[in-house]
Amino acid sequence: MNLKSKPFYLDEEAVFWVENTLQKMATSQKIAQLFCLDIREGNDAEFSEMIDSFGGIPGGVLYRAMSLETAHAFTTKIQNRAFVPALVVANLEKGGNGIVKEGTAFASPMGVAATDDDEMVRKMARVCAREARAVGANWTYSPVIDIDFEYHNPITNTRTFGSDPERVARMGKIFVETIQEEGIAATIKHFPGDGVDERDQHLLASLNMMSCEEWDETFGKAYKASIDAGALSVMAAHIMQPAYSKALNPNLKDEEILPGSLSKELMNGLLREKLGFNGLIVTDSTLMAGFTNAMPRNRAVPYAIEAGADMFLFTRVAAEDFRFMKEGLETGILSEQRLEEAAMRVLALKAAIGLHKSTKMPSVEEARKVVGCGEHRKWAKECAEKAITLVKEQKDVLPLKPGKRILFIPLENRYGEPKPIETKPCQAVYERLIAEGFDVEIFGAETGIPRAEKYAYILYVANLKTRSNQTVVRIEWGAKCPHNIEEIPTIFVSLENPYHLLDIPRVKTYINCYNSNDDMVEVLVDKLIGKSQFRGKSPIDPFCGKWDARLG
Q1: Hey, what's the torsion of the CAs at 157, 160, 161, 167, to 10 degrees?
Q2: What is the second-level CATH architecture of the domain 388-550?
Q3: pTM score > 0.70 for this model?
Q4: How many CA atoms does the CB half-sphere of 326 hold within 13 Å?
């Protein structure tokens, strides 16, 4: 392993630190470096469990969004206790809100792609990096360079830069370059590529069924672009790629094909040898069924490292998974050579971002000046202004005319007892329209089929977010089914999922926002009432390949 070459580019001092640190480590300390734990609260209980399970601080910790003060204090506590500085990571996919609740909600990657502006990618990466660094983070599980070919996929969706492989490759590369310039190690994911299967790897090992040639021209180009740009890490997902697995191992039987997180063929043959990646490979969450269904956990834990991963993401029971890794080394599932290589790459990543020199971070007071600062908020609103896309437009409907009566129909994820409006974004649209002088009635059980003489417009606002562990994101109409498209001017706005034309193909005015943050909602209403023009360009096929969805 050449630590002086791409992507680590370590100097003599850093190489010495890696080699000397590794030499001083006991076997149990090397094994601890292989783990990245899930930190949800940043409290004393999580800290104590970590110490009790690993005898110290493991190689890395991933923060879920918590308060700025909590994140700052937990990072301080970890680094003060760590024998080797820890990697502090978050899912910085769309802003500083990926690590701290006060962080800037910038935009989804698809919203950034809709601006068709490379500088907007740089601004998003800078926001992610600067706000994360303020609380001591040094690693991110982003960018997502999946390609959203399958509109039914409930996971990729707005987390991607769209369905154009060239745009995904270009914007992914720009994100990697920018965030690493800002001192945060990037992770390109989800190798070997999500967005082809309509299923969710949280629930099963999903498939990328492209031929080798198709993969090379799409996902291969995206990965190669970011690898050539110096991406420090890759996330191996619970996704199978049968064509390449068999091409690299012709003797492989169908039942022996494994997902990327457990596949020697994909991690070594495709990623390391063919694509030339020399950085750190981390598994996706090993709590997902796509991982757990592949083999018994006591074997899967050490086998993931033996197959080519360098870091193991999350534990089912921390002490138990740590024991499984040690037992795997003792029984030969995990070789000494792979343990040494993996631990060395973890240390090399730490050295590449300067942790061997310092783990100093800003004070809490300094952090507050960065997180959610005015400049970052300004950039987020600028992105919203450029992103919102008018996909279809009925002549002479927009802008909405003040004083007119609107039937407002929110379509939302349901949580608990039904309310007239379920979520804050839909409520914000409703309140803003009232403030602008419109007469707005919320659809209710007593509304019945709307009458043309009663309403000037019908406005649907859908806030149906895609998320893990779900199988589909579709509209459940009930009584809200659109009966009056030909009688009353109907506008459909999707705040999140951009593929709702599948379920309302004949609507004549359709708008995609790609995100439901405060800036997006504010700018949306400006555009509906004519204070701002629509500027977004769709980065996917919003018509879902359906001819009737294109009809005006």
Answers
A1: -110
A2: 3-Layer(aba) Sandwich (3.40)
A3: yes
A4: 14
The answer to whether the CB of 114 falls within 8 A of the CB of 387 is yes
Residue type (1 letter), 254: D
Strands 139-140 and 87-90: parallel
Q: Which two tokens stand for residue 292?
A: 């757990």
| Strands laid side by side in the 87-90 sheet | 139-140, 87-90, 60-63, 35-39, 312-313
Q: How far is CA 54 from the centre of its chain?
A: 28
Delimit the domains of the chain by residue range.
12-357, 388-550
pLDDT in tens, the chain (552 residues): 899 999 999 999 999 999 999 999 999 999 999 999 999 999 999 999 999 999 999 999 999 999 999 999 999 999 999 999 999 999 999 999 999 999 999 999 999 999 999 999 999 999 999 999 999 999 999 999 999 999 999 899 999 999 999 999 999 999 999 999 999 999 999 999 999 999 999 999 999 999 999 999 999 999 999 999 999 999 999 999 999 999 999 999 999 999 999 999 999 999 999 999 999 999 999 999 999 999 999 999 999 999 999 999 999 999 999 999 999 999 999 999 999 999 999 999 999 999 999 999 999 999 999 999 999 999 999 999 999 999 999 999 999 999 999 999 999 976 555 578 889 999 999 999 999 999 999 998 788 888 899 999 999 999 998 888 878 888 988 889 999 999 999 999 999 999 999 999 999 999 999 999 999 999 999 999 999 999 999 999 999 999 999 998
Q: Give CA–CA dist 403/91, Å, rounded.
A: 44
Tokens for 464? 């149906």
Read off the tokens for 24: 């001083």
Angle ∠(323,23,358) on CA atoms, nearest 5: 95
CA 431 to chain centre: 30
- The runs of H, that is alpha helices, within 218-265 are 219-228, 242-248, 264
Block residue for tokens 């002549």: 395
Catalytic residue, candidates 284, 310, 519, 541? 284
CA 131/CA 368 separation, integer angstroms:
9
The answer for residues whose C-beta is within 8 angstroms of residue 510's C-beta and 6 or more apart is 390, 391, 392, 491, 492, 494, 500, 501, 504, 542
Architecture field, domain 12-357: Alpha-Beta Barrel (3.20)
The pairing of strands 139-140 and 457-463 is: unpaired
310 is catalytic: no
**The pair of three-digit structure tokens given for residue 100, joined into one six-digit string:** 């701290």
